[in-house]
Amino acid sequence: MINKEILQIENAVEFMEKSYNKNLCLEDLADIAGMNKAHFSYTFNKIYHIRPIDYLIRLRLKKAVNMLLSGVSVTETAINVGYRDPLYFSRLYKKYFGISPSQTLRK
């Protein structure tokens, strides 16, 4: 792997961190990195040991924890972190953390 590829991937990661609440897809991220989708996925996984979409999901869910702990409702949190469907968000959250978002909200 060359330094140029690392910088290209870092550009996509920075974009994800700034735009995690937007409707991002693999093609968008690959375009930002200046790579095709397959090469982007392969290189991203080689650097971060995680698929780009899983990185984005984890990023969104970590942001969600902070919102829930500060009293933001589950529905509003879901929308704020980029999920249109609060039910889907709740399932992902529970799968990742082992508790529901509403249980976090009550803490």
Keyphrases for this structure?
single chain; 107 residues; mainly alpha; Arc Repressor Mutant, subunit A; 2 domains; 7 helices; elongated
How would you describe this structure to a colleague?
With 107 residues, the chain is an all-alpha fold. It is 74% helix and 0% strand. The chain contains seven helices and no strands. It has helices spanning 3-19, 26-33, 37-48, 52-69, 74-80, 86-97, 101-105. The radius of gyration is 15 Å and the shape is elongated.
* Annotation, overall tally of beta strands: 0
Number of domains: 2
Structural class of the helices, strands and pairings?
mainly alpha
List the total number of helices: 7
Using the alpha-carbon principal axes, give the shape. Answer: elongated
CATH class of the largest domain: Mainly Alpha
Strand content: under 5%
**Biggest pleated sheet:** none
In angstroms, what is the radius of gyration? Answer: 15 Å
**Share of helical residues:** over 70%
Beginning-to-end CA distance, first to last residue: 44 Å
Return residue spans where pLDDT drops below 50 for at least 5 consecutive residues.
none
| CATH architecture term of the largest domain | Orthogonal Bundle
Task: Give the averaged pLDDT, no decimals.
Answer: 96
- N-to-C series of helices and strands: HHHHHHH
